[in-house]
Amino acid sequence: MLEEYIIRTSKREEFIDITGYVRQCVRRSGIEEGVVVVYTPHTTAALTINENADPSVKEDIIEFLRRMIPRDGNYSHTEGNSDAHIKSSLLGVSLNLLLSRRRLLLGTWQGIFFCEFDGPRTRKFYVKVMGE
């Protein structure tokens, strides 16, 4: 089962919790055991798994990336979003998750995040649920 989701980001850089969308897709699939792939087809966005209980964690990650990869760095790419391309490459555009008994095998504090680095924009991501 493959589903496409459209989201609207509201800031240049932000992490949006998409765990609920992925769980919804798993429920609709009816698949008990397997693998879930989450993918975004953007070169200035990414996906990651991290703590979703304390919002300061995602803010700390964004701030660290800003310091390490500044927006106004000395880049050859002249569109003004080279930092976003680098951040996307470092975090990655896809995730593989395990599915057991119709549940994602996420840790207690883990959530799935869509990472925007060149917003605000309308973005999409895909969720593919595959059974054994």
TrEMBL record:
| Source organism of this protein record | Methanothermococcus okinawensis
Q: Which Pfam families match?
A: YjbQ
Q: Which InterPro entries match?
A: UPF0047_YjbQ-like (IPR001602), YjbQ-like_sf (IPR035917)
**Descriptive protein name:** YjbQ family protein
- Membership in a protein family: Belongs to the UPF0047 family.
